[in-house]
Design brief:
Layout: H1 3-17, E1 21-22, E2 29-33, E3 37-43, E4 46-51, H2 57-71
Antiparallel strand pairs: 1-2, 2-3, 3-4
Keywords: Signal
Length: about 80
């Protein structure tokens, strides 16, 4: 399996296990609904996280995502 696809597969599995839903119309878009909505867009080596909630949910989600990527040794996503 090629490295980019392997990284995407690991990320995809993790996001689904955390309660994200993968968009049916765009496989690079993930949504998370809990006291608001968070959107994660995966495009190549870039990750874009945004949401509609001003609480700490988005910050917490970004921290969890960052720690997961570090744990899975996907450091190349941050180069």
């Amino acid at each position: 399996m090629q490295a980019p696809r392997a990284r995407y597969t690991k990320l995809w599995n993790f996001l689904l296990s955390m309660g994200f839903f993968n968009s049916l119309s765009d496989t690079s878009l993930f949504t998370y609904s809990h006291a608001g909505v968070a959107y994660l867009l995966v495009h190549g080596d870039n990750l874009v996280l945004t949401g509609n909630n001003n609480s700490n949910d988005g910050i917490h989600l970004a921290c969890v995502l960052f720690l997961m990527l570090k744990k899975m040794q996907l450091d190349s996503w941050f180069d």
